[in-house]
Amino acid sequence: MNLDHFGMDTITLAGSLEAKLDTIRGAGFTQVMLNSADLVGHPDGERAAITAVRTSGLRVTGFQVLRDFEGLSGHLHAYKVDVAKAMLRMCSDLGSRVLLACSSVSAHASGDRELLKKDLQKLAMLAVPFGIRIAYEALSWGRHVNLLSQAWNIVQEADRANLGLCIDSYHVLAHRAPGVVSDELDPVKVFLVQLSDFMWQETRSPEDRIETARHYRVFPGEGVHSDEIAALIRELDAAGYRGDYSFEVFNDDYKQLPLAMVAGRARDSVQWIAELVSRRSLPARRTTGSTA
Amino acid sequence: MAHAEPLPEPSNPLGLDGIEFIEYATSQPQAFGALLQQMGFAAVARHRSREVMLYRQGGMNLIVNSHSPLRGKGTLEETPAIVAIALRVRDAGYAHKHSLERGAWDMPTRAAAMELHIPGIRGVGDSLIYFVDRYRDFSIYDVDFVALAGVDPKPKALAGLHWFGVVQTILNDRTQDWLDFYQTLFGFTALPRGQYFGILPKGTLLESPCRKFYLQLIEPPPGAEDIHWDEGLVRVGLGAADIPAATRVLRDRGIVFIDRGSVQPSDKGALTQVYLGGVTFELVVSHLQP
After folding, report:
1. Segment among A210-214, B183-187, B268-272 with least mean pLDDT
2. Which candidate from B122, B123, B177 shows the least CB-CB separation from A161?
3. Average pLDDT for residues B224-235, to the nearest whole number?
4. pLDDT tens-digit series, residues B86-120
5. In this structure, what CATH number is given to the domain that contains residue A20?
6. Which of B101, B104, B171 is facing A131, going by the closest CB pair?
7. Does B2 map to a domain?
8. With contacts defined as CB-CB under 8 Å, which chain A residues touch B9?
9. Same domain flag for B96 and B134
10. Does residue B71 form part of some domain?
11. pTM higher than 0.90, yes or no?
12. A161 contacts chain B (CB < 8 A)
């Protein structure tokens, strides 16, 4: 595993889009995860943002985030379809092949499985003409879907080629969900893996999880769940996942530090992971000394 | 109060019943018109207010749209391109609603060649898919078009030519995405791998639920990194019961077929040379009724 398999996320850094892209590329990364604020918040408009991304030389890992899409009905559903269409257009304009969609937290969303499945099928269909894949992520505070296993079940039932999963290590850790990468999980249906850690052992309530997720994440290797993250990456790698990893690090401190310093920490994190994986990639039996 | 039973959809949910017309767009309508005439199509009507012509051959309607600007774009391309397929359906309004509910994109307003309101959705690339339900007792062309004087409005087909299908290029690893699209919206089914009809045995062949035409999805061939490959509708396939006879008739009219390599004319099919910078027609031996 090397730097090419990892991307930084613009939400980790302060400053302009151009400064973020320069810093990320300057640190040696080849890809970047973008969010809609990068476009619509650009002082010179969306076109300027698209040009900045397209000329940066960085590959776009994915575009985020469509929220609260599934489980709505009537005018709320129609409204969210419009939002989804706009997100898909922006995603396409940026040359991104992946749109991240988070499980709904809306109090108005139904938990009816058939409806959730149908809505995700519809979202996947909307994305087909653009060649975009939908990566569905279980937010750990999602109203009806908050575990990876639940998201995986719905993705399987929906059965659309361009609908898969985003696995975010934060939500897995925050929920202390055991056996994340089960034998049933098809690595081909994992469209994106987002990595981050945090600095305390537990997040007890949904409010805790939200607060930590939005302000106190750190890069893998910097937090207190290194073993779990290492295990997750090993499991994914062993299962055959060969897609992108992106650092999804929301951290208030990092947004007031020099960009190059934060990107340096991201690089260190890649190094930390690469060492884990290189150890793992040695034949396991030989390292244990077993002759069996 | 009635409850909706969770019944499976019928295999032909829209009552699909073949192709009503294929629409091309080009800034060279005369050159393309001449080619179409060589292919056996005859100009039968002109649009009342736009630079749009209707060509016909047997049961095939073909619209050539040179009305600029098209779909908000600045200029028309010279090379004729397939920009729409109109599908015959049981109820166009229902077909439209059914498609939008399942995640199809509504077509842009005022994008259509026709003034008559024909609902449609977005297809591959910049193309559209229209739904037409008035094709038995009423001609949609009567509203928008004026028949050309002294011209047979129903010219016979050469060698029984009829629509066989449309070839769609797609990007790598996109076959399943487009299968989902055509299966979910219209009820197309993929034929088993290895089942082909013409002389271009590649890609994935989808059969319409009415069994009246096919779509062929083609990913870039291996080693094609250097060629420009985009998603779109690239060619129509014309069916004929007797390919050598059809080839002979068209050759006599000046059409040139590729006569070398794996695509030379055979009993199974034939492929024309590339015309006008990118147009080809494929003949396919056909079991379909003209």
Report:
1. A210-214
2. B177
3. 88
4. 999 999 999 999 999 999 999 876 556 666 778 99
5. 3.20.20.150
6. B171
7. no
8. none
9. yes
10. yes
11. yes
12. yes
Residues B124, A125: C-beta atoms closer than 8 Å? no
> How high is the ipTM of this complex?
0.91
- A101–chain B nearest CA distance, Å: 16
**What's the token pair of residue B208?**
């319409």
Task: With CB atoms and an 8 Å threshold, state whether A161 touches B180.
Answer: yes
Q: Model confidence at B290, in pLDDT bands (50, 70, 90)?
A: low
Evaluate whether residue A35 is within a structural domain. Answer: yes
Contacts of A161 in chain B (CB under 8 A): 176-177, 179-180
Question: CA-nearest residue of chain B to A127?
Answer: B103
**Is the residue at A286 inside a domain?**
no
Domain match, B173 and B134 both? no
The nearest CA of chain B is from the CA of A82 a distance in Å of 11
* Chain B residues in contact with A129 (beta carbon < 8 A): 105, 122-124, 181
Give chain A positions within 8 Å (CB) of B124: 129
The pLDDT of residue B241 is 95
Specify burial of residue B138 (Cβ count, 10 A radius: 0-12, 13-18, 19+).
Answer: exposed
3-state DSSP of chain B:
CCCCCCCCCCCCCCCCCCEEEEEEECCCHHHHHHHHHHCCCEEEEEECCCCEEEEEECCEEEEEECCCCCCCCCCCCCCCEEEEEEEECCCHHHHHHHHHHCCCCECCCCCCCCCCCCCEEECCCCCEEEEECCCCCCCCHHHHEEECCCCCCCCCCHHHCEEEEEEEECCCCCHHHHHHHHHHHHCCEECCCCCCCCCCCCCEEEECCCCCCEEEEECCCCCCCCCCCCCEEEEEEEEECCHHHHHHHHHHCCCCECCCHHHCCCCCEEEECCECCCECEEEEECCCCC
Note whether B121 and B211 are same-domain residues: no
Inter-axis angle of helices A74-93 and A113-127, to 10 degrees?
A: 30
pLDDT bucket at A284, cuts 50 / 70 / 90: very low
Q: What is the mean pLDDT of chain A?
A: 91
Q: What is the CATH number of the domain that holds B172?
A: 3.10.180.10
**Does A22 fall in a domain?**
yes
Domain range for residue B271?
A: 158-285
A124 touches chain B (CB under 8 A): yes
Q: What percent of chain B has pLDDT over 90?
A: 72
**Chain B residues within an 8 Å CB radius of A121:** 102-103, 184
Q: Does A85 touch chain B (CB under 8 A)?
A: yes
Six-digit token string for A214: 């939005």
Q: By three-state DSSP, how is residue A230 classified?
A: helix
